[in-house]
Amino acid sequence: MLITESWLSDSVINGLLDPEHCFNIIRCDRKNTVGGGVCTLVSKKFNIVEVPVTTDFSLIEVTCVDIFLGCTRCRLFNVYRKPTCDASDSVRAMEQLISCLERFCQTKYPCIIAGDLNCPLINWSDCSAPRGSIYDKFLSFVVRNGFSQLVRDSTRQHSLLDIVLTNEPLIVSNVGVEAPLSNSDHCQVNFGITVEAPAKTHGREWIKQYLWDKADFSKLSDFLLAVDWSYLLSVNLTTDELWSAFCQELDVAFDQCVPFRYVPAQQKPCHKKSYPGKIRAALARKRCLWRSCRSQPYDKDTADKYHVAEDKCR
Question: What's the pTM value of the predicted model, to 2 decimals?
Fold first, then answer.
């Protein structure tokens, strides 16, 4: 889950966001002022490595994480660029954003950049923007690095602000714009990532099993000695965060230094959580009215009904 304008601060610890400890949480909170910020949540069933990106870029809000999906590795950026009235700040922020993405997109595996750029004047269908503007600068970065923008519908009123860029379009599928969550004025953007996964045989799931008798322990030792444990201890302040960060480093080390194979997983009963019927009905009503609003954007009656359903749902 990629959340922009998270409005988080130091007073909100990760345990409040994820009381059941189901996710790795990567945040970039806005400092000194209220609002803004980005937050990325990745299920703990995936191995990840956080990539620190904002140390040298004070005007931008970005998280970056490498996710191991099946047999594929993918670098995922979550970006928020705040709109600003000050032209010089706006230019410097865009320059920092482009510089940051240029630096960290230079990898041998696919990159996906998602978030809210607040760039309504970019016409993604014909790749055009006002000449000499900050929008033109960002579009030049996109073209120069071979990225494709995959969101086609407006995401806030009649503007396309929330984007999904990738330099490997074949791995991204089912990009769709859905009804806003809660009372947000931005739509949700959903997309899938298609990766090379272990084969399933007769419907059976397969899991990774490390072959410790063939491990390269010397390489493993060197890898763990190279980890900056002091930095890890300084940025993870709670017991849960420390344990999660420690396990992430071990998982990456094991993947690189220990051969593995896939074996059949033991089937466990699936207990899917769901909302009570009353809430499911409210969600369905909200989705239905949202679709009507999209097809009839100037119908005030439908819009009023949607806002009533939105309040009831929340």
Answer: 0.70
